[in-house]
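Protein record

Derive tokens from sequence
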Amino acid sequence: MSTTAPSPLLSESLKGLGIDTGTLFFALNYDFTKIESKGLLKRFKKNKEAIDIDLACVLYDTHCTIHDIVWFKQLRDRAESVKHQGDSLNGKDRGEQAMYLAPLDQEQIRLSLEKVPLNITHIALIANSYHGHPFSRVKKGEIHLSDDEGNRCFEVNLKQIPRDCTTLWVAHLRREIEDWHLTLHNLPLSAEDMVEAAQGVSHELARALPIPQGI
């Protein structure tokens, strides 16, 4: 499912990071990047397609079972606590100018943590390259998480992700009594799409659950 898990780069409560726990934005910003299509015929015709990176938030219950996946195929969860703001197909289609240097993210998911149902204990933040192009092939770009005041929890430079990575478990949020705990993973996954990635993360989260004591 994944490569060997590296030590977490960040593991802290949102309040400990000085982050407003009301609303978070999981967002993506990258330069429009064309890639030569695979296959001899396509190469001969000089066809090119653009890198298309998608974001997803996956909501899990106390048993680490998938409750909802919010992504371009489902723009909000049942409780409307997590909302996808719209899909960017190639990093350029929200305007003629390159968006990387602009304040607007091409793709963004809004998390209203106070509205997340109480049975949801984990939220995974995942990125996937729709056409299977490695993230590192973008000219430049980043994935980040911030609150509604612009305070950033983390930034992930797409050029520094392992060379062949096309699906990334970026981070996850774990519910605490009066807060959420953030862990930044930056873990490449072998999954080819969001659903497979969500299932893989479910397995990893379940493995980390405390083992019930025998009666």
